[in-house]
Amino acid sequence: MSKDYYEILGVNKGASKDEIKKAFYKLAHKYHPDKKEGDEKKFKQVNEAYQILSDDSKRSKYDQFGSGFENMGQGGYSGASQGGFEGFDFSNFSGGFQNGASDFDFGNLNDIFSDFFTGGGRGGRTQARRGRDISTEIQISFSESIFGTNRKILITKTSNCATCSGSGAKSGTKMETCKYCNGQGKVREDKRTILGTISSTKICEECLGSGEVPKEKCENCKGKGVLRREEEISINIPEGIRDGEMIRMTGGGEAISKGTAGDLYIKINVASHAVFKREGNDLAMDLDLKLSDALLSTEYPIETLDGQISVKIPEGVSINEILRVKGKGVPSSKSRRGDLLIKLKIKLPSKISKKSREIIEQLRKEGI
């Protein structure tokens, strides 16, 4: 049955790449197995949907042929992914045969066709083994989100063995040909079915497809090449990153024996600032002015994220008028920075002296 990747991500068929990306980040964070209410099955479905819909070529083929498009055109059985055997449960096909029908293996037909049509059979390609994706989150300061930073975190995950560098072999020992598969990396399996004897190939469980095994196994990982340990990860956080954005570190996830490590997703939480707020690539702030300064003009010292500057307040400014300071905002991808927007607030005194009152009365008489 064809999978509806749009429904899995909760987006429309005409969704943009940004909408697909945002939906993926949200669901990946929600369903990650390390979370209290995580769901590994749904996490894998979300990841699979994103891998297809985020790639223009794969998405186009998926829209045209459905989720079976990747298996099309492999050998003489390519039609199976378009309705030939897909969705047919051979394990339930167990009646109506006599005279020795029980000699055939009905229950494993699903596995046989699954192996055959996804690359495990004759002439197909072997699918690469891949570790699990994992996620975490960190908090950075507002200033770090503007200018970027580098963070190091400790994370416990399945990683390559530091002793054997993932080979599974004892230091100094040689590799030898796997006796189970004779160095082929695959083993052939023949099954007798109602359709005749069907041959399929599977990755050798002894050497995991490499065709070689160590003469002596690493004592630290017992020959597996991976083990669960605490690892320090260095995260390069780019300038201008937004609150809630995710950084993907390819190969930073769970490692797997004789395979490719999964990815690590880091959600960035940006702490709020006491003075500044982000508006696109601009930074905005409020500045309280005395009434006299608003009328007569002056200069105010402003502490920006780059250091202190002096801002000239022109005479006769209005309440909520905005002054723009060029190049003091957020760095953008176009090798330029946004601006600093200063919103002027005129602070009126709660109490005034007798002398001040007389002056104000005089101003009022003059129409000011």
UniProtKB/TrEMBL annotation:
Binding-site residues for Zn(2+) 1, renumbered to this chain: C161, C164, C218, C221
Transmembrane segments: none
Pfam family, one: DnaJ_C
CXXCXGXG motif repeat positions: 161-168, 178-185, 204-211, 218-225
Predominant place of localization: cytoplasm
Molecular function via GO: ATP binding; heat shock protein binding; unfolded protein binding; zinc ion binding
Domain CR-type, residue spans: 148-230
Residues covered by the J domain: 4-66
Single GO biological process annotation from the record: response to heat
Cofactor, how bound (note): Binds 2 Zn(2+) ions per monomer.
Binding residues annotated for Zn(2+) 2, in chain numbering: C178, C181, C204, C207
GO cellular component terms, A-Z: cytoplasm
Cofactor: Zn(2+)
ZnF CR-type span: 148-230
Keywords of the record: Chaperone, Cytoplasm, DNA replication, Metal-binding, Repeat, Stress response, Zinc, Zinc-finger
Tree of life domain: Bacteria
Localisation: Cytoplasm
Assembly with partners or alone: Homodimer.
Recorded family membership: Belongs to the DnaJ family.
Role, per record: Participates actively in the response to hyperosmotic and heat shock by preventing the aggregation of stress-denatured proteins and by disaggregating proteins, also in an autonomous, DnaK-independent fashion. Unfolded proteins bind initially to DnaJ; upon interaction with the DnaJ-bound protein, DnaK hydrolyzes its bound ATP, resulting in the formation of a stable complex. GrpE releases ADP from DnaK; ATP binding to DnaK triggers the release of the substrate protein, thus completing the reaction cycle.
NCBIfam families listed in its UniProt record: DnaJ_bact, PRK10767.1
Description of its domains: The J domain is necessary and sufficient to stimulate DnaK ATPase activity. Zinc center 1 plays an important role in the autonomous, DnaK-independent chaperone activity of DnaJ. Zinc center 2 is essential for interaction with DnaK and for DnaJ activity.
Protein's recorded name: Chaperone protein DnaJ
Naturally occurring in which organism (per UniProt): Candidatus Nomurabacteria bacterium GW2011_GWF1_31_48
Organism lineage string: Bacteria, Candidatus Nomuraibacteriota
Gene: dnaJ
